[in-house]
Amino acid sequence: MAKKYDVIVLGDYYLDLIFTGLAQLPELGKEIFSSGFDMLPGGAYNAALTMHRLGLSVGWAGDFGNDDLSRAVLAQVREAGLSTDLFTVHDRPLRRVTVSASYPADRAFITYCDPEPAVPAAMRALAVASAQVVYVAGVYYGKLFDASHALVRAKGMKLVMDGNSGDEVVLTVPAVRKALQRLDVFLPNAAEARRITGKIDLLEAIRVLSELCNLVVVKDGANGAYACAAGQIIHDPGVPVTPVDTTGAGDCFNAGFVRAWLAGKSLGDCLRWGNVVGGLSTTARGGTGRTINAAEVEAWLQ
Length: 302
What we know:
Helices cover 35% and strands 25% of the residues. Helix 2 links the parallel strand 5 and strand 6. By secondary structure, it is α/β, with parallel strands linked by helices. It starts with a strand and ends with a helix. It has helices at 44-53, 68-80, 121-128, 143-154, 174-181, 190-197, 202-210, 249-262, 267-281, 294-301, and strands spanning 3-10, 13-20, 36-43, 58-61, 63-64, 88-89, 96-102, 107-113, 129-136, 158-162, 185-187, 215-219, 225-229, 232-236.
């Protein structure tokens, strides 16, 4: 019998080494010290756990290895109460680690990843599970995405994708355009929207993306978020918080938005949910350092 969830999350784990309280930017040949440090799971874990805390049934399709980093994240996944039913554990190292130099307004990353498995856990999961929404924790395109899309649509599931991607993801690449056209919701941040479209003006970038995807939601940090549907752009301002670490804030925004979207809330309310969850997440280190539940969001909105 197929496993059923509210959301299936497709994406990789990362182990985030987060340095905070930095007095200056790193410089070659110079050692600087931080006043704060955390080692926390990141990547797709941020959205998966935040959705779980907001009351959604989440199946995370993730690949892990036999290395210490994989084991450390798996231990925290189990402690957090997330389902591991859709995980694939490989008999080899599958290390994914990010060093985050975090400042109140932004952060810088250094990342290392071992080679990916030929057949990812996502493909296995989509064959045996179903949900209302499939959430992809970054921009994916190409043959594997095409095959995944066929499985998603065959089961009547909605497809939501975050905008996390490298410089190669631009609209001049036909496979990228094709992937975005197949989405129900696209959730880039402002920098990603500008890079992908090549447009400096953010509203223009949003309009270009909306020609490909029916619902485009763009996160703009402390400036809040925008959404464009049926050619109409709406904006919701960010919530007033004093940020400690912005790592994972976009993932948490996505989780709040999807939670409200699945509940049938208006587009404006969905943006507000995203801004509240994303904003509150910045008041602790790491994307999930602050536990946020639906009751807290409702109380904040009231």
